[in-house]
Design a protein that fits this description.
heterodimer; A: about 500 residues; alpha+beta; 12-stranded mixed sheet; 9-stranded antiparallel sheet; 9 helices; 23 strands; B: about 210 residues; mainly alpha; about 65% helix; about 0% strand; globular
Amino acid sequence: MNRSTHEFDAVERSLSEFFGEVRTTEVAPPNSWERVTSRLAQSDLGAPTVISGGGRGLPRWLAAGAAAASLALVAFLVLNGSSGDGVASAHEILQRAERTATSPQTAGVNRLVVEQRIVGYFLGEEARGVPYAEATGRVWYEAPDRQRIESSLVEIDANGDLLSETTSMAVWDGVEQWTYDSREQTATVRRQDPSADIYEQGILSGALARSETFLSGSHCREADVVGEADILGRTTDVLELSPATCGFTLSGWDGRAVIWVDRETGFVLRAERYAADGGLASLQEVTSLEINAPIADEEWRFTPPPGVEVQDRREDPVEMGAMTRIEPRLIAIEDALALATFAVRLPSGLPDGFELKSAELWWPGVGSEERPTVANDWLLVRYADEDGNWLQVSQGFGGPLPGLASVAPAEVDRGTLIVRGAEAEWIDGRPLMGGRWESGTMRILVIDAGRVGSGWAVGPDGERLTESPLHIALASNALTVDELIEVAEGLE
Amino acid sequence: MPVETSSLVIEADQEAVRRCQAGEADAFRVVVERYANVLYGTAVLMLGDRSEAEDAMQEAFVSGWAGISGFDPDRPLRPWLVRILVNHILQRRRRRLLRVIPLPEAPLPIASTEPGPELAAEHAWQRREVGVALAALPADAARIIVLRYFSELSLSEVAEVLELPVGTVKSRLHRALGKLRTELEGRPGAEFLTSRDPNAPQDEEAEA
């Protein structure tokens, strides 16, 4: 066998598994044929027009990937610390902006009213500076589950003639979700998924998309603080980002970019994206911003315009029971400790060379007609050394059986023992995608946290689940079971 | 790996193409419904945005319909459509299309088959590592991997799509996989992705 081919087997297998997952999650919209025929009708096969609207945001897997990509920033900060002189470094500012873009509450923002605009410009010398489209939008957001978005898109040709104009609206009132598209002349109402993070679904982060404001791909760019500026009476740090040196999906620009990051909150208030030839390719700017000001209840109501067809999908299911929707949140450990709904326990001692690398707080999703209050979140903290050895400590609602151990085949090496005065289980290996267990890749030690969960969940039939024992799982690719036990004994 | 297109699919494609060439627009629906997912997924992977991907997919089908009269029904349809799509994607990147303020989709119900959050996290972590590593590759390297492993084109079909000699595709794919492996190496929690699996099936074509 060719050695290099052999070497790539595992990579190819991983790709196959990854793409297999993508195939199941990234399927074409069910109305693709109708969209194509609509476009055919409009295009007359000569000049197809852009069907915008229906924006679906960053794919979930890619959004997750983007979050993971910021691990590089976390690691950078952990390893290098802050600039230490009271002035935030470019990477510190970007990290803050990333966190705020993911969860404004981490910046103390619970209510938000923002107006914003995005302008795209023709490229090339002849039409440089001439806009070809402008999108404007206004967003109201109130944590955790109310939001209203009004947006419009105007497309124009190089002569300034109007090509199309579309307005869209979406309202989440905490119970129901309405969407409206002027082009389609339809409005749809659904039950709002109480487990869904509406902010994360690309609204504010849509206009100020992380992919567009260069945060997600920031590990691919050099960033420099080039000054400060006042925008809307707020002090911003101005960062210049170099052209990306990597990444094919996280950006749509080849030149440099300049972003203005609000010093208080981390919101990106303005972003200029340049083409490789230096011409301005797009401008995104916040034109008004209100933070934590009261929002009138009427903003959460939606009345379909006259003549609009209303599709009532409130009877469609939004639930599948406990622990079904899990969203990663990459956050600072301090935030994890503050946000977790249980008393987090972390190692008091680590093996030589291991350092904190990242923390993720996962929110289990539960849906039912009775709106649940879900508190059974789950924390994953990762440590690693410079040689690639790692240790992860996860804790939270685990159900009656530890997840990893419960899927291992019978022949896998495992055992039970007493740790911290309670029963614990260790197991060798880990499951790969596709359900295959790979022995020898790591050791997992699951210990009883010795407490009953502080949270609760609603089951698929609306029943309240109170059997929510918390457990802690330690896993490592390098540490032995005895070493994991030592770490476990030191948790506090 | 290149998909093993069944003779039934080939015959159905040929029939659909001939009907399209005879002016039966409805026959194109068969083509759209059969290849929408692979075009859409390919576009998502290359553009990183569902809205843009949907748009690119539609553009590709419109162009496909416009050009189907000159298409040889005896040739495989998938690589021809993928090639049209890739051309649109490359044009799109050059045009720097403005992204609109996206409307969110309603959250979709997700059926749970997972035994617990940790396993879900493990799987998500693995996928994420591959996705992030892929996104960190140069565009041409990522593109060739997507065409080969997601769009499931053979090396010769990838060569046709990218207008490159097959030998060049082989060497570029090899280099792209090497870069991906390098990207994956050293990621905490992702070392399993680069572990060797002696039992993994061999790809005869790649080995050639």
